[in-house]
Design goal:
The mean pLDDT is 84. The chain contains three helices and four strands; from the N terminus they run αββαββα. The two termini are 20 Å apart. The chain is an alpha+beta fold and 98 residues long. The chain has a two-stranded parallel sheet with strand order 1-2. The protein has a two-stranded antiparallel ribbon with strand order 3-4. The longest helix is centred in the C-terminal third of the chain and has 16 residues.
Length: 98
Amino acid sequence: MQNEISSEYPDLPIKILSINQIGAENGIDSFNETHALPMVNDNTGDDIWVQWGSQWRDFYILNKQNELLEVYNLTQNNLNDPLNYDELKQKLILAAQE
């Protein structure tokens, strides 16, 4: 989705990344080229997962001021469903245009 949006809307400041939960570092080695997103590891100093009350596969949509607009869970809204994929893509585009 990141490549698609960047190609279609090159002027929009949309960046998708993943934040790995504290304690889940073991699985990182099993990622391969299919995991195309930049990933950062949460840490006890930032404790993002706890601060944000994150659930597994939560997708946070922020505006240009880094304010939370919406949480879109990817388990409940599987992106293999084209309707969910298009819905999330549109949410990102609208957030970047605000």
